[in-house]
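Suppose a colleague, Dr. K., hands you the sequence of a protein chain of 415 amino acids and asks what its three-dimensional shape might be. Before reaching for any lab equipment, you can write down a predicted structure in token form. Begin with the sequence itself:
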Amino acid sequence: MSVSHADKQKIAVLGLEAVVGANGQIDPADTKFAKELTAELRARANNSKNFSLTKDQRELVDEKLMNNCASEQAQCMGPIGASMGADVLLFGKVANAKGGYKVSLTLVDVRKKTVIGTDPNSTITTADTKNPNLGSWVREHYKKLTGEGGDGVLIITAVGANAGRILVNGDTRDTLKSGRAEVSLPEGRYRIGVEADGFKLWEQEGVTVSSDKPTELKPDLVRSKPVDVVDPGNNTTEPTTTGTENLISREGTVSPKKSKTMWKVAAGVGLGGAAIAGGFWIYSYTKVDSFSSEKVPTGVRFENASVKDVTPEHCSDDFKPIEPGNMTHEANAKSINDKFDTACKHASRTKWLVPTTIGLAALGAGALIYLMVSSDSTESAPAGTTGRRAKKKRNLIVTPVVTPDNTGATLRFDW
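The predicted structure, expressed as tokens, is then:
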């Protein structure tokens, strides 16, 4: 019988302290493992049947220093647990040893300030310092400390599948029967896999199994091969015949998904370049147009005619003072010539800016259209994801066909 959340005792797990071990020092790897082991102990306590984990998370080494509790006696550790809002306090040490670590754990009743469980100098091998083995070690020693055990039930329903295997941390644990399986497991977190006939392997990490209530999984299986075509007019489930039963066919290569980075770059460069070139063209056009509206100053004439059009044949000429040596006429001529030279430069730029703008715009638009009409979608969701609708991948498939009399190939667009 499970304990309600309100009746559960609060448990606090202090961060384990890495201490000097067999090699005479504390390595960074020792500190790292102490943190990993602490995380597993807190995860186990959080899924506990009789305890609920406090939100307050502190480190043993800090609390001992601040509370002058180097001896780790229950009389001293109890108040630390009380300050964390806990009924019981779990703490311990990790020391490196030959082939692994030595771990000492202690459980204290906070109110009574007494030790209610100890697990001194337990060995954990190097091979067991990583999950899933680390999780199994924690479950075993947590049970030893708290006396709390019991298995949980994992219920798996695989729609569309009939027979198959249930994998727990990579090992076969049970079988599917009519698409359903119930697996009894000790409380903890597991990697669950389903390998059903006609489907790809499905896996999900971090599945929590608790004795409080069954854990249900409904994996979204993805077929590993096409479904047989059934004749609508035939009540049997036999595949329809196509007249090619005696052909020897082999699946050809599937065109690989090509990177579209080049097209994205082309679209960006084309459209961006067209915008910049177009901006310069508009700027140059306004400069040329503004000169056309300029009034010729007094005492100035154009060298070859009385016009000032900004055209190639005119840009080679200048405005001249009517009376050379007249300071006013000279200044007016210099002023209008400066404006004329600027307009001519911009007129020259428009000759190449216009085709450049059009070319870049065409390049960018073409690349953008290609990206829009040839977007790919993934064939299926990654293993371990559930509740997502799988999208079909667009492929070009070439299927060679070989018979005793002839050879050939079929081309199929899988769209």
